[in-house]
Design brief:
Bound molecules: succinic acid
Distance between the termini: 33 Å
Radius of gyration: 18 Å
Largest sheet: 8 strands, mixed
Strand content: 25-35%
Number of strands: 16
Oligomer: single chain
Structural class: alpha+beta
Helix content: 10-25%
């Protein structure tokens, strides 16, 4: 297995690996590379639904999305990531960490794209929350250290339902309170854990102060020096660690089609 870093801060492309057939030693190497680089990219991977799920399950129990319709009949753990000429809003086109509104948000997402826009586009951008945290002043790090924030799935998921004409008025979406700065359970590194899709308020501070701090953090985490950007090919796979990475999918290819499937792995309560 060959690891080619995309930037010194985040991201690596992995060569010489067949994800559908990972032996234990190579799996351990992939996991170590993920912890080091936070997001990994693999090209030309043939991966059917069972192989995709089996790959995710090697990292931990699979997650079922609280709002999206199942992506494949009989496979509730499969999330359909699809946009075409009829799409009114794509999933993931703003900076976020997947389903951070869960009390135990997913640790890992594995996205396999099989159809790409003919004219290019549809890249995914990833930002290192370690690097974003480390770039803050000591004073700001100390201020944020004791704070928690509310992450609420309702506003995001209800907006999506409204745009696609789906009545979700009887649904209760997840809501959780998480530390603003979380410590990664495997690496011990600290990272920012608020995002513009799910975080609605800082707890224990006046609302205008909390809103200003969140606005600052949302702009901060989106700075290009913390990022890498992946240009997909047919059958590429991206695997990202939601505990220390935010991502956004670029919807610059309308009305063309971009399509694939995601498997997501359950995580721990952030500390
Ligand atoms: C997502 O999982 O948030 C979507 C990512 C993408 O479509 O690139």
């Amino acid at each position: 297995m060959d690891v080619e870093p995309l930037t010194p801060v985040i991201g690596a492309e992995i060569h010489g690996v067949e994800l559908a057939r990972l032996d234990d030693a190579t799996f351990a190497d992939v996991e170590a590379a993920l912890l080091a680089h936070q997001v990994l990219f693999f090209r030309d991977q043939e991966l059917d639904i069972d192989e995709h799920k089996a790959l995710g399950a090697r990292f931990g129990p699979l997650h079922v999305h609280p709002s999206a319709p199942p992506g494949a009949p009989g496979h509730p753990e499969i999330l359909n990531v699809h946009a075409d000429a009829n799409t009114k809003r794509t999933a993931g086109d703003k900076w976020h960490s997947d389903v951070s509104c869960d009390v135990e948000p997913p640790m890992l997402s594995i996205l396999h794209l099989h159809t790409l826009p003919e004219s290019g586009g549809g890249d995914t951008l990833f930002s290192s929350m370690y690097a974003a945290y480390e770039a803050l002043s000591g004073a700001m790090q100390s201020y944020l250290a004791g704070l928690t924030a509310i992450h609420d799935g309702g506003p995001n998921y209800r907006d999506r339902s409204r745009r696609v004409g789906f009545d979700d008025s009887d649904r209760v979406y997840p809501r959780a309170e998480h530390p603003v700065i979380r410590t990664h359970p495997r690496t011990g590194r600290k990272g920012i854990f608020v995002n513009s899709v799910f975080t609605t308020e800082l707890c224990g501070v006046p609302k205008d102060e909390g809103d200003a701090i969140l606005a600052f953090l949302y702009a901060h985490v989106a700075k290009p020096q913390f990022q890498c950007r992946f240009r997909w090919g047919e059958n590429s796979v991206a695997m990202w660690d939601n505990r220390c990475v935010q991502h956004m999918a670029m919807w610059d290819y309308y009305p063309q089609t971009r399509s694939g499937l995601r498997v997501t792995v359950r995580g721990d309560r952030p500390v």
